[in-house]
Amino acid sequence: MQLKYNRQPSFGSSILKILIKLILAVVVLIFVIFLIEKVSFPSPENKYQIDVTNEIKKL
Q1: What SS3 class is residue 3?
Q2: pTM value?
Q3: What is the C-alpha to C-alpha distance for residues 5 and 19, in angstroms, rounded to an integer?
Q4: Where does the pLDDT of residue 20 fall: very low under 50, low under 70, confident under 90, or very high at 90 and above?
């Protein structure tokens, strides 16, 4: 007679796997945020001011 193989993982091991994945995801997210802060994105050197008085006078 063969014993029935229990394929279902225990409750503790499934929670442990979820917890490890969650911690890994948080670490990766923090690492990505840290890298994004280190990159210097170009910013406009001067502010654009649009003169709309001619368009208002035409109306």
Answers
A1: coil
A2: 0.53
A3: 26
A4: very high
